[in-house]
Structure formats: structure tokens, C-alpha cells
Amino acid sequence: MASTQLEVDGLTKRFGGFTALNRVTLHVKAGERFGLIGPNGSGKTTLINCVSGSLPADGGRILFEGREITGLPAHRRTRLGIVRSFQIPKPFVSMTVLENLDIPLEYAAHRRSDEADADAMEILSAIGLESKAHLRPAGLTQIEMRKLELARAMAARPKLLISDEAMAGLSSAEVDDILAILFRLNERGITIIMIEHIMRAVMRFSERIVVLDAGERIAEGTPEEIVRNPAVEKAYLGE
Amino acid sequence: MRRTGAVLLVGLAVVAAGIVVASLRVNPYLYFAGYVILQYVVIATAWNILGGYGGYVNFGTPAFFALGAYTAVFLIQTIRAPLPVLILAGGLVSALLGLGIGYLTLRLRGVFFSIATLALSIVLQTMIMNWEFVGGSRGLSVLRPSGPPFGSYVTFLFTVMVLLAVIAVTVARFIERSWIGRGLAALRDNEEAAECMGVPTLRLKLFATTVSGLLLGVAGAPFPYYVTFVEPNSAFAIDYAVNALAMPMIGGTTSWMGPVIGAVLLGTAQQLATVTISSEMNLFIVGVVLVAFVVLAPEGILGLVRRLRGR
After folding, report:
1. Tally of domains within chain A
2. What is this structure's pTM?
3. What CATH number is attached to the domain comprising A203?
4. Chain B contact for A74, CB < 8 A?
5. Residues from chain B contacting residue A86 (CB–CB below 8 Å)
6. Mean pLDDT by 10 residues, chain B (311 residues)
7. What is the value of ipTM here, to two decimals?
8. Buried-most residue among A22, B155, B197, B201 (CB within 10 A)?
């Protein structure tokens, strides 16, 4: 039985009077493929923002590998191994694809700047972007942009990768392409939290799924259990 | 390492050339004009460390420049401190102000940060206008120390400004090529993504605002001896805010060379216009040139050159 890597304990986040997350608790095991789903506005991205440190939590605790990280700034969490990709790709637009990877290699993985390029190239060829290494992000297609987002996250040498809707808007073949990449990363021992609306992808990928609705955790289980859960059906389809 | 040595050599050569130029017996006005252009090299370079590398547009350049100048006035009035002390102190006080506005970036980004820096300039000017000890709104005459180390006092100040310009440009070049510069570029492109990729964005922003403030204060510290009459309207002149932004934009903001090119071109044009047309033409020229560049060459002269070479 693998040990718990990420522990979110009673996490609460409010925006003014609106409670985006209400005492959410979840445990993710090292090496796990973990799915996080829920209807629009259920708090998935807010939860990720709190875990990655982009937003401060209003209550509760977050532990990573047994260490409390609730108050750490985002860049420190990245260096510990919690790395996220963004729902809407946020590349460094003034840099080439290769230089985009050099930033996390240098800042998060502590590679020397003269070694970073070789590492970056290796990651790019693993993900199939090596021919675009010297292009600016503006010259990339939608799928290439998503791949860059993942490649840049990989460059930070994550132990836990949080993929925030990496497949939204992609074609079916492209979804398979990204899924294959995530499976390969997981085989290398990287824990993956996948947030996704494409059910086919989450159900195939995840070993365990947690469902959020209106900031509350409403279900947890294997994909089969989730599909059969009446509360989940209600959250998505209404009564 | 060898490149760093080469850069230091070039810097020394420029300073030496400055001393040679200062010892030539040409029209003294040329040194006056040269001083202003060099001062703008320092100002534009300093502004660019925050604005160009980090993407935080500072409209409050006059505040930092004048703080350097008024720190010098204060030290002249109290202890008649020598010029090197004035420069160090002016730089230090402005660096502290820079550190302060660095913390503003926690809450203010984009245009809101810029507005806050503009307000800062106005607040500081009002305070100085009500502080009689440094001349208040009427201003204050400053006596230059007798007997400069060499030449006349103006040629001496000219040489000092050559040295300061070399230091400023060297610092900017170093930042640009180091991990600091790469981190600043990342946070300029996307601050949230930079932070999530391990870049300590707050620390880098504080560094940039402090160094930028320091160099702006350094540029302002010799100002009292240069003009010999300091009053708030000239020390806080809007020209500094506009030029500090326009010069890097015209030259190109992503490289240390950009602000230098912009300051030399625009500074020279302004000095020529002051003599041949009128002193009011200065800002008009800046305005026209800036609009032209923003529309036709948003990446400045360096970007233009790069584009032409690329074809």
C-alpha cells in the first residue's frame, strides 16, 4: 500500500460571502492516478489553486509528504514537487519553446543554465515537440500549446502533477495523445491529479475519483462506483 | 568569465574616453549637454530594469530622481558631504523607496501599479515643497565645492556621469544575462505561471524595484551641483517620467542596449531642439517619436534591426 502523498484536510475557501470550497478533505497516494471531477463552478480549479499555492486558503490544512505546506508560497511548493499546468495555457510568450522549459529547469529543478537546454530538448522529444523547440508559443497549434504546458510542468521535475483540463477543446485523437503522455509520466512514478470534463478520459485514466459539487465533496470511489453513484448523477443532471 | 573581463575592459575604455573628452578644450556647453544625455542613459537603463525586464511600468521616475537630488541637497546643507557620499546616499535612499514600491506589486499590477507610482511622485513633490530646509517651493542655491579634482567643475561632473552610466549599463547587462533576468522575463510574460514554475516572483520584483530605484537616485544625486539651483518643479519634472519610458521603448526594452540607444538618440535630439528651436519642443519631439514607434516598431530599434536581419 503506497503512502499518502498529498493530504488536504478540511480546506475552506471563500470569495467574499461565497464559499467556493467547504471543508474539503481528500488524500492522494504516491504514484496514484487521481481524478477530480464536478460540474462547472463546483470548485475544482479553486481547490487546485489552493493546493498549488496560487490562492491562500481560509481554513484547513494541506500536507505534502507529511509536511505542512498550507502557508508556503507557490514557488516553494513547486520546488517541493507539486507542479500544475493551467487550464488556459500560460506560456512565456517572449521566449522560445525551449526557453519556456529552461525557466522551471533552472528555478525548480536547480539545473545550471548551461545544462538546461539539453534537458529541455530531452523533455520536448519525449512529448513530441522537438521540431518546435525554437519557435515562439504564438506559432503553436492548440494541441502543441497543451503539450508545451505539460512539457513545462515536467521540466519542474514534479512528484505530483496536477493537470487542469489539459484536454478541453481537443479532438478525440488528440485527447488520446495527451492521455498517453500522462500514462507514461505516471509509469515513471509521478502522481497525477487530473481535472477534466471529458468523462471518457477521466474514467479511463483514474484509479480513484473524487466528485465536487458547489464546493462540497459529494462522492469518492473507483470510476465504476462513481458512474453508479446517484448523488453524482443528480449533481450533473439535476433531479 | 572571459566575456565579463571584456565587458569590464570596454567599460574602463569608455570611462577613459570620457576623461579624454573632458580634458579637451571644446565649447563648455557641449559638456552641459553631454551630462544631460549621460544622465538619461542612467535613468533609462534604471527604468528598464523594472519596466523592460520585469514589465512593471513606473511613471514615478521623477520621485526617485528627485529623492536622490534632495538627499544630496540635505547632505550638502548639513555636513557639506563630498560628491561620492552624495551619490551613495542618494542611491541608498531611493533604493529604500524602490523597495517600498516593490511591496506595492503584491496588490497592484499593470496600470494600477503605474498610477500608484505617478501618485507617489506627486505626494513626494508636495512634501518637498513644504520642507523649507531644502528650499521648499522657492528652491535653493547650491554652491559647488571649490577646486574640482581636475578641469572645471562641469567637465568633472561630466566625467562622473560617464562613470555612473558605465556602472548602470554594466549592472543592467549583468542582470539581463543572469538567472535574475530570465526570472524577470518569465514574470513579465506571466506572473502566475512564473511563480508556479518555481520563480520567486516577489523576491525578484523587490530586487528589480530596489536596484532600479538605486540607480535613479544615483542619477539624481549630482543634480544639485550640476544646476546649482534646485527647486521642486525642475527636480520632479515630468520630462523624467516621459523620457525614462520613451527612451527604452524607442531603443528596445529587452536588451541593455535599448535604453542606451534610445537615450543617446532622443537625448541628443532634445538637446539640439533646445538650442535650435525652443526648449518647449523637447516633449513634443518625444511624443511624436514615441507614437511613431509604438505604431510602427513596438519592439524598438533593436526589434526593427532583428526583424530586418531575420529576412
Report:
1. 1
2. 0.90
3. 3.40.50.300
4. yes
5. 192-193, 196
6. 75 81 79 93 96 93 96 94 94 96 85 92 94 90 83 88 95 94 95 94 95 97 94 92 92 92 91 80 81 86 85 55
7. 0.89
8. B197
